[in-house]
Amino acid sequence: MLVLRRKIGQAIQINDDIRIVIQDIQNEHIVRIGIEAPSDIPVHRMEIYNLIQEENKAAGGAAALTWLQGAARYDGSSDDSSNDGDNNDE
Predict the structure, then answer these.
(1) H or E segment to which residue 49 belongs
(2) Is pLDDT of 9 > 80?
(3) pTM above 0.85?
(4) N or C, fewer C-beta in 10 Å, the chain?
């Protein structure tokens, strides 16, 4: 982890397209920052990001379960001709 000290108005640049600017410092413990990033790069507070990840895992698990249930019903045949014409009902 890179640890930096910045004063109000100073910035940190990440690659060519992300900039973090120190907006305000209150009581030496509360830092207000501004983040400039392209709209296709999601920026979230960590607690929100964690919630999104949990929801994605839950949704992914449900989707995988649905897929597995469908796969379990599939027996490899596409129609009722899987018995090769043998009629065992005689």
Answers:
(1) helix 46-73
(2) yes
(3) no
(4) N
